[in-house]
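input
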Amino acid sequence: MNANLLNSFEIPGHVAFTSVNGLAKAIVTTRASTAQVFLHGAHVTAFQKNGEPPLLFLSSKSHFAPGKSIRGGIPVCFPWFGPREGQPSHGFARQTAWELVQTATTPDGSVALNFLLPETALVQAGWPAAKVNFIVTIGEKLTMELKIANSSKQDFVFEELLHTYFAVGDISHVSITGLNGMDYLDKVDNAARKLEAGDEIRISSQVDRVFLNSPGQVLIHDAQLRRKILVEKTGSASTVIWNPWTTQKMPDDFDPAEYQRMICVESGNVGQNKITLAPGATAALKVVISSLAG
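output
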């Protein structure tokens, strides 16, 4: 989007725009929090409540360049999850410049930004035509809604995931609850199907688990920062837990020591939980993130 058009979406005191290496970024200020969202990937890179540490992790080595994914924050994985030969990992949406179509304040003092994935991005990649909106609402909580409407004349089959990187004080003092009794695919163990039998998940090695049929909320307990992070969701049947530890070879946009300060708890619909939309049908994924005293 050109600068003049982008400036028309400014809200004095609440929404302003800047750029990093030519990538436009919205800086959002509310009475409760601040946030940053790039049009590149409709990518939320920061959310912080007043008086608290940042809720999201962003790699110190992240690329900010066209054709590159941003490492950290909340990548929008769409229309597939994981690797595809000759294609960008986790889909092309996170490497595409989205259009900003609306900014608005709400009665409770929050600020909402509505992004649209250009339909040409889908059609040129050989996918059915669809209207894809990503609405980010910043306030006491961070609320994200990914809405897809199939505007083609054929079924639209896709995966979607909000690949959220959370900032933690020390991964060795973090536990995750809410997934007890759930089946998962252990990608560290050749995608073996397993049952999560414990009340809490602790990270002491590389973890990459895709929890199936897991629509409930998840809680991250961070002992060092003395807080809990609540992940609430609707329209999501999959939950992914990921930390590369020291054993996973990472690209050059991730400092090997940074595994200690992050945990990914990702919400969406992947694998056997993928979505099939009939012509004219719609689907909505909603994720709400908030922090609580620990």
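quick obs: The chain has two helices and 23 strands.
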